[in-house]
Amino acid sequence: MSVRPLIAGNWKMNGLGSESAAQLTDLVEQASEYKDVGCDILICPPALIVREMVTLTKGTNVQIGGQDCHMNVSGAHTGDISAEMLKDAGATYCIVGHSERRTDHLETNEVVKAKAEAAIAAGLIAIVCVGETLEERESGKTLSVISNQVKNSLPSDVTAQNTVVAYEPVWAIGTGKTPTPDDVAEVHAHIRSDLKSVMSDADGVRLLYGGSVKGSNAAELMALEHVNGGLVGGASLKAGDFWPIVETSI
Ligand code: PEP
User: Fold this and answer.
1) pTM to 2 decimals?
2) Domain 6-249, CATH homologous superfamily name and number
């Protein structure tokens, strides 16, 4: 089954207005050379500039997403933003359960699941992140940890259209280290098989790899079976670094 890849950039807590706008404008210009780039291109900037970035990308083949959302639609949750607010600002996707959220904000699988469901209810596509720690990998627990996260973090109404799964080994995020292609292929095949046990259109779900993806390793990683794109942190901040990664999926 052919699945349209997704190359997503996660800007995390980086970038101020004018510099972010300049990088996004460069990316849009690169992408505009293609009528159809053959993959979905997504940038998830800090929430504060989502609306501005949506304006900059209107009518282009670059989409804008959120990095997180609250599980509730509105209410007394100081400092949080809801999926509906992201949707209202023009976002189309929302990352949930990034390992930095799981660690910094003690988000459990149950919280991640509720956030994914909130994102979908608001009309966004949820990008649900899973991944093992180094300790878990070294003690041979990778596949069971991933299965547990997939089983408990995915929304109950999961479909290939409303959910993307990103495999991001925690030890590979921002470290310059990546698993071997064989290790990535093994985990992605495992996730696909887990999905098949809970949904009928599992083959259509996009499975992203994330963790120190850069121009020099993207082609090999993106070509693996069951890898349908990437979630990119550091290398998404500059259009000149991100574009070569996008190009591997064109
Ligand atoms: C991420 O933040 O999701 C990520 C994968 O970061 P990096 O590419 O910098 O490792």
Assistant:
1) 0.97
2) Aldolase class I (3.20.20.70)
